[in-house]
Design brief:
alpha+beta; 10 helices; 6-stranded antiparallel sheet; 6 strands; Arc Repressor Mutant, subunit A
């Protein structure tokens, strides 16, 4: 099963911090890194993400979610996290060990084909189908990655042409900043808005319009750490004016871009 056009999965997991609110603060407190899954899983998964550390006091990390399903494993158990419509918040305390699986948008359905992905949207539910202690128990990071590989391969995901189509379409939205309107995008893909909506409901979990907006906010969030020219950023992201970007950013993140930029400067890096 081939990957979406423009995919760089062979070069290693991505190293950007898109979606991570105030990433430097997270990196200063815990170790955060990404690992690629086994080759047969790469058509379906973005990457694994691993967090380890010790916190003297509780720390809550906020994430502007990608249009992706995640599986999250901790010593307390496993959880299926559907696409979150609002900020995703995760509180860590004491000894921290978290192993996560981020699926490609459209890539989760082959693992649980009996339900549309929209069934999980906005929900976080226990996922006992994979024993969390087998994932987070090993002290060696490579062993944890191998345990994730084995558990997911055991679910025997089957190639699905509609999953591939959904992944391809989301990848186009993700990489092409000129895609601003669903109607125009549907016309370019020689399909209808309604057909796109049905496909995204079943395989992505959110609408095409939601995906377009979310990726623009991700890019604005990333740029907020180094660039203060919001009028130019708004224009490059396809907003009619700066006020519309500020409104969407504030509704999603909870603070205006200028306020976020003042608090997000700092050290730390993605491993």
């Amino acid at each position: 099963m081939a990957g979406p056009p423009g995919d760089t999965r062979g070069a290693g997991p991505r190293r950007d911090t898109r979606g991570i609110v105030n990433a430097p603060e997270l990196f200063a407190r815990v170790r955060f890194r990404r690992r690629l899954p086994a080759e047969p899983l790469r058509p379906f998964l973005e990457h694994y993400w691993l967090i380890d550390g010790h916190l003297d006091e509780p720390f809550t990390q906020h994430v502007v979610p990608h249009p992706s399903v995640n599986l999250v494993f901790q010593p307390t158990g496993g959880e299926l996290a559907g696409v979150a419509l609002d900020l995703f918040s995760h509180t860590m305390r004491g000894e921290v060990r978290v192993c996560g699986v981020q699926f490609r948008p459209g890539g989760f359905r082959p693992f649980l084909p009996e339900h549309p992905v929209s069934r999980w949207t906005g929900r976080r539910v226990p996922f006992p189908e994979i024993a969390a202690h087998e994932i987070v128990g090993p002290s060696d990071e490579d062993d944890r990655v191998r345990a994730l590989d084995a558990a997911l391969l055991d679910r025997d995901p089957r190639p699905d042409p509609l999953a591939l189509e959904a992944m391809d379409l989301v990848q186009r939205i993700r990489t092409d900043r000129s895609i601003l309107r669903v109607a125009d995008f549907a016309r370019e893909q020689h399909t209808t808005v309604r057909s796109l909506q049905r496909l995204f409901n079943g395989y992505v979990g959110v609408s095409p319009k939601w995906v377009i907006l979310r990726y623009r906010i991700h890019e604005a969030l990333e740029r907020a750490q180094t660039d203060a020219d919001w009028a130019r950023i708004a224009a490059e992201l396809g907003y009619s004016d700066q006020a519309h970007l500020v409104r969407d950013f504030t509704q999603t993140i909870g603070v205006p871009p200028s306020a976020y930029a003042r608090t997000s400067a700092g050290g730390g890096a993605l491993e």
